[in-house]
Structure prediction request, 376 residues.
Amino acid sequence: MYSGAQISLYPMADDFVGIILGSIRALDPYRQSLRIEADDLSTLLVGAPEQLFPAMRDLFVAAARSGTHCVLSACVSRGCPGEPDDPRCTPSTDIGAEGPIATRIAAAQARVNAAQATGVSVAAQFSHYPLSHGQYMDEIYGVIDFLKNSGVFGGPKNFCTRLAGDAGPVFSTWSRRSCISARRRRAT
Amino acid sequence: MYSGAQISLYPMADDFVGIILGSIRALDPYRQSLRIEADDLSTLLVGAPEQLFPAMRDLFVAAARSGTHCVLSACVSRGCPGEPDDPRCTPSTDIGAEGPIATRIAAAQARVNAAQATGVSVAAQFSHYPLSHGQYMDEIYGVIDFLKNSGVFGGPKNFCTRLAGDAGPVFSTWSRRSCISARRRRAT
Prediction:
């Protein structure tokens, strides 16, 4: 299944170009496994979830460690009608994306529990749009229930769910799900 | 129907707080008709599309006129299951949101044609997630066809559609639709 993301990094600083160019090196370890193409609005990442989300996390953490107030905004999609399948998008292992929602939540929670801390504290918000599910609200409520018990729940908001905590577990809550998310490092 | 947006303004400058606080005054004319609540991640706007999109446009244009490279990111939703209806979300006139897609496209194009120029040039990208449509790809392809002929089409991208032009017609392409969009002023 073709999958990937459009991501944008916004350092709130006069030297935003320097900070972006400095942190983009964090994507170097992923250049063999992800298709990466940048334009003036966003950077396209195409590949498997097991590479996609760590790449996004490492890029954001590199920028946040500059000490600048910065945001990573990402539009993540599993599936892209009109695009052919791409072998690089196939996960190397079962990612637990099928089956009853309770089973998927348990697999997602195990990944959050296993996530390594980065030392970078973030606040974030997340929306999930399961287009291919007829009972899409059941899917959305399932994701909200998962987030409430994830250990990084930051409270409800209209149209999205707030998360807060270390970037490691926060980014892991999104891994292997189709989602749209906006993420901001807390003001220091 | 409960409707609104979570919006975030990202000026890429050391003085991002000053630029945000200066441009937020552009929302003052809308404070009677919109519910507006800010937190550290985004600002919630709740109200009718006829107020919502002009408010977003005016906020962005005010910030962009500072000369700073800045981005407005918005998650816009028509409907919010779990929230009660809110009278302020009811449009004062028929907004052409019902009926065959060809009719809706014609109404949307008329609004774009009537949009006043702001003098601020923008590049933008837009994704549309029609959750409540069983044939969601028909809706998405309809929106893409509309954008291609809107006069502000900027080219295809994976997972979104690029727009470019004056902020007036660009923002008007989104008006009265459920959407997710990210918008960036061109680097000057």
Notes: The CA atoms of residues 2 and 85 of chain B lie 5 Å apart. The beta strands of chain B are 3-11, 35-38, 43-46, 70-78, 121-127, 153-157, 160-166, 179-185. The radius of gyration of chain B is 16 Å. The first helix of chain B runs from residue 16 to 23.
